[in-house]
Amino acid sequence: MQYKSQSVAKLYFIAAIGLFVAQILFGLVMGLQYVMGDFLFPHIPFNVARMVHTNALIVWLLMGFMGAAYYLVPEESETELFSPKLAVLMFWIFLVAAALTVVGYLLVPYAGLAKLTGNDLLPTMGREFLEQPLPTKLGIVVVALVFLFNITMTVLKGRKTSISIVLLLGLWGLAIFFLFSFYNPDNVVKDKFYWWWVVHLWVEGVWELILGAILAFVLIKVTGVDREVIEKWLYVIVTLTLITGIIGTGHHYYWIGTPEYWQWWGSIFSALEPIPFFAMTLFAFNMVNRRRREHPNKAATLWALGTGVMSFLGAGVWGFLHTLAPVNFYTHGTQITAAHGHMAFYGAYVMVVLTMISYAMPILRGRAANSNKAQVMEMWAFWLMTVAIVFITLFLTAAGILQVWLQRIAATPMSFMDTQDKVALFYWMREWAGVVFLIGLLVYIWSFFCKGEDKTAA
Amino acid sequence: MAGTFTTSMARNIFFGGTIFFLLVFLALTFQNEQIIPQRDQRAQLAANPAIAAGKKLWETNQCIGCHTLLGEGAYFAPELGNVYKRRGPEFIKAWIKTQPTNTPGRRQMPQFNFTEQQLDDLTAFFKYVSEINTSNWPPNIEG
Question: Which ipTM value was assigned to this complex?
Fold first, then answer.
């Protein structure tokens, strides 16, 4: 570790992994409810499990991004963090807010939670992924602004690199677009239109800048390739991301009451969205092939390559699968969307955070890389989780194709619930793949406690 | 990459390209705002306060956590954007009142203990959503 203040990242990474476990456990509950409908009812209804599953994911990825920024920015800027104390304080506020929110979801009926937390003052709750009570949303804004202040001040007082500029743009964009979560008009069409300015412009926009910056940073470190080369790649990738992804938002505007010209704009631009992801795959492999050093942390390199491949498959290929309007007419709101969501989130954002953790955590613990034994274990976890998510995606895709056929294309369409019964076999297989994912995650956590001879001190 | 292509050129293309396409997107959004009044049933919304009340009930009971509305939400329970056309108001109200079914193994919907007034608000909301012009989505009445 070059700068003492980088150590605040450790807190964020540990909490991120903790929330990751919660996310997967609730995912397994939901998966079981898909086939055993009354499982845990009425104690944990499906909607509650889903809120915890998705919100825990969002929060742990944000924690991962913040941890990554606190680790990366001092090193890029060649200066200590502006205020490590503020970073630690914000960590505890964020963690307590997240914990209270989850406890609220689990213990208080949602309507009661809305009343209790002042939703009447400014109704923002009850929209997908933005279910958080008003105080939590405000807390996210405060934490994000203080975090941005801290990071921006650090960059301003030190060296300004392309990586930190792209990262900052991504993080500022993240905070700015979150503000649309406070806009909730009665008009459903407008509500949905601007809801996507948070959801789409996050995951298919500014988050990709954060992803690119983190990946570029780790690749510089593990490959030793010239910064000049890597930063050029980074700019090309994020350019492609935003020129396709911003107007690509149109692929959500086909069937929600918005004008039909979006079918053209959305189809054309979102069909190009796989290109930046493919560039990312080429980028990762190219840099590793041209490496100028053999970094002892093989696991981090594996995660970086994995991010390149899996983000292309999940976000690029599985996104393209249903993004053209004539296809989406049949697939919109089916398990196809769920299949894409799972592999895209894992391949792009889960993997890039795990890449950063894999690279930074050994250094934060005082060594350049973990012991061979621990790295082998971590690589086992990589393969278990990655293969499991591939199968989850394949099974959900199969369920989705059948669902589209039975419910929307067949001459005598079946009802939603009858269709669900017909595809139950695939839901069972998805659940088993989910169990393998959990095993992979447990192996991953175990790898942190694996003893063995450490590689050279950092 | 060719030696003539420098980092500062890449950076300029990034900023230029992003700003250009952001402006195009904002122009499309402006155009969108001009057209949606013909499609989004806003006259109905203004005339009938029950719709907004129904939307709030929809939100504060987190219906989107299981159902989809115009294809967005969770995929655990049926699409409700067109439920008004599929089932009609009386069926919707009766259905909500009798939940949960407690049929073993079947997916369960909680009991929300809505008043008659609230049930009417919800059905007004479903009627309004079902009349939004969605370019003929969903493909058929099953949603």
Answer: 0.97
